[in-house]
Amino acid sequence: MPPAPPSPPSGNPVITAVDTYDIRFPTSRRLAGSDAMNPDPDYSAAYLVLRTDAGDGLEGHGFAFTIGRGNDVQVAAIEALRPHVVGRSVEEVCGDPGTLSRVLVGDSQLRWLGPEKGVMHMAIGAVVNAVWDLAAKRAGEPLWRLLAHADPEWLVSQVDFRYLTDALTPEEALELLRRGKDGADTREAALRERGYPAYTTSPGWLGYSDEKLTRLAEQAVADGFSQIKLKVGADLDEDVRRLRLARQAVGPDVRIAVDANQRWGVAEAITWTRALADSDPYWIEEPTSPDDILGHAAVRRGVAPVKVATGEHVHNRVVFKQLLQAGAVDVVQIDAARVGGVNENLAILLLAAKFGVPVCPHAGGVGLCELVQHLSMFDYVALSGTTRNRVIEYVDHLHEHFVTPVLVRGGHYTAPTAPGFSAQLRAEAIAEHSYPDGTFWAAERAARAEEAA
Amino acid sequence: MPPAPPSPPSGNPVITAVDTYDIRFPTSRRLAGSDAMNPDPDYSAAYLVLRTDAGDGLEGHGFAFTIGRGNDVQVAAIEALRPHVVGRSVEEVCGDPGTLSRVLVGDSQLRWLGPEKGVMHMAIGAVVNAVWDLAAKRAGEPLWRLLAHADPEWLVSQVDFRYLTDALTPEEALELLRRGKDGADTREAALRERGYPAYTTSPGWLGYSDEKLTRLAEQAVADGFSQIKLKVGADLDEDVRRLRLARQAVGPDVRIAVDANQRWGVAEAITWTRALADSDPYWIEEPTSPDDILGHAAVRRGVAPVKVATGEHVHNRVVFKQLLQAGAVDVVQIDAARVGGVNENLAILLLAAKFGVPVCPHAGGVGLCELVQHLSMFDYVALSGTTRNRVIEYVDHLHEHFVTPVLVRGGHYTAPTAPGFSAQLRAEAIAEHSYPDGTFWAAERAARAEEAA
């Protein structure tokens, strides 16, 4: 069991509300975030707050990340889950998020809209993550530490093994988690001292000039990052040139990952990646459709020794399972807000540990760095037990809108100390960026109306 | 090119509206439709009507099928596509639905919500299918015939080959379609005379008594069906017993498919299916997660000679491609309203033809029989050229709500003759079953309020 929560003032407090917010940031106006498939993202959050009558002032915050249009659809999906959540006992839900997670995934009518994929599954992830935020706040612990100190049996009970047992049984998971306890205290101390290694995508967006790419790449090295990432896939000659520039800027010892954002078919992925080989790219990320397990396996065979990474759009544990079974990836890129929340990410971390494949989370957007750091830190302290070849993506976007933003220093994420999942937006951010009636968007509309007049 | 549409009265008519409707039928009250994963479906349609200013009275109708809760989320997703549709030239869209299909799939912000899966992709399918309904009405042809008489080059232009070319190139697709022209006239005449073989799921729902199962199975044989289907997966002893009853009722020569609706993991699927073997099941359908390509391949190896069928929840052409590449299925079960509409189903039919695997569509629900018959009939006349080992699912539900309902006689679907995609609900059905304010649902609410008072 996780550390016991403080006694609530009322006898059996319940969740009284699931309040939702359509939050959008106008990031498309400055080209940060542009890649070969996503030229103009407006980073957005379909955001929710769980409120209770516990009287302790604690709320659970969670969100699905989107890139603009459709954020309203994502909010509608979260609202469709509300009847499963409101009225539940806070203690029961926070003591066992896995049961609620199974209820949400198992709603037989909503399940038809997936199953376990796309809008409906991301909505489940948002709600489940909000529950973990509340549970960690009640426990007075940052989520990574709640997980790292939890009982292995209890962690196993939090995982849905349906469709997984041909690759990972509950018994194997328990063994991995028990083994993870060896030396956990030493690793926790090391984590608090050094943090968790990060890499940065900031230099590599497609819209940037050569001068900006070079300057940001040099800055990344100066800031202590040992890996950067470049977006590729729009124009081969340009990619060859930009990658050489980046290599010159960072020198031979800093890793450069490249990211095609699903742009290619299998043959093109192989040809294109090979054409970049003389600049020594470390991994090729999302070379093709995130659904194409066999395609990734073929690409991996075709581009070695360049590694293959994917995961930010892999929609559930069943696809991750197969990517590992098929030997299709060298790097598992979990995302905190794509799958069904912490519980499903536990399953994916366990699968990666079983297969011995490093996890390097996808982050960026809005709030993804804040969330996913907790999962990697738990993995280091109490599961995989190593940070070797493991880095969390870092993009310096929109952190200022969070109550407890990530802190990256010397190329490392600092271990969070505040209780919770670092998921909470500042009240001002919600008031300004609620769409379409927050103060930012209302002012935009007024300005456009004035222009038109 | 498809047959030229009649000249419109106005110069360049455009699509003026995408009107949406949340339509729900209270099917959960009579146990028809119950299976191991879906105990109480309320068959529903997130329904849309494309209206134009052509002045010819023609509209395009389309829908996503859901089973109740979340139908509102599905409607919201269709509405998110509206800006891509309203204002487009009717002639351009109907002459080339593939271009609009690519625009919808390619919206970089909405794409994040999939990509190409779940709620957002089903919404795209609904809109694309509505365009084909309009195109076929304008051409004065049932859709199957419009497709069967279309030029092979034009059909190839309607397919998005992204992520497919490692399994099927445009050149191979063209060759398949050209070969499909040989003997097409003869097959069209045969189709008009005999119809297309059907199988029926009506006897096999889990909620039915033994007496009802036996009676409906005997009736199915009397009605001319050469295959029936039973739902399994809730209780093994019960399944063994029910399957024996059904085998006794239909005799040795009628095929009995069994359908687990994703209930099992890989090992359980193999054990359970083997335990049913003495009643000679023809195929096991959805033995495990629709995402588990490698799992289906393992099940297929483990249960032969029982065949493996899946597809109703397979979310796009990339997963179908892999099921075929991996030798994971004996039967491809397309669904007209799960993937991105007619264009993506063309891709899937072409893949199945390339790999020589028979297509036996999923149908039932509301309107799925009406839609999918057109795809199988096109496939017979002008692509695969055969109905051998091919049957379309038939469930006798809710057809009365359609303007041109399917007509199944002697175990065969009769070839539709009315122009369009058979997608149009009767105005009364929309007025009664709109949720929550249609006359049926309003009366339900009033009755419940009275009970409570």
Automatic annotation (TrEMBL), chains A, B:
It catalyses: L-fuconate = 2-dehydro-3-deoxy-L-fuconate + H2O. Pfam families: MR_MLE_C, MR_MLE_N. Signal peptide: none annotated. Its cofactor is Mg(2+). InterPro entries: Enolase-like_C_sf, Enolase-like_N, Enolase_C-like, L-fuconate_dehydratase, Mandel_Rmase/mucon_lact_enz_CS, Mandelate_racemase_C, Mandelate_racemase_N_dom, RHMD-like. Residues 210-306 form the Mandelate racemase/muconate lactonizing enzyme C-terminal domain. Keywords: Lyase, Magnesium, Metal-binding. CDD domains: rTSbeta_L-fuconate_dehydratase. Its EC number is 4.2.1.68. This is L-fuconate dehydratase. It comes from Actinomadura yumaensis. The lineage of its organism: Bacteria, Bacillati, Actinomycetota, Actinomycetes, Streptosporangiales.
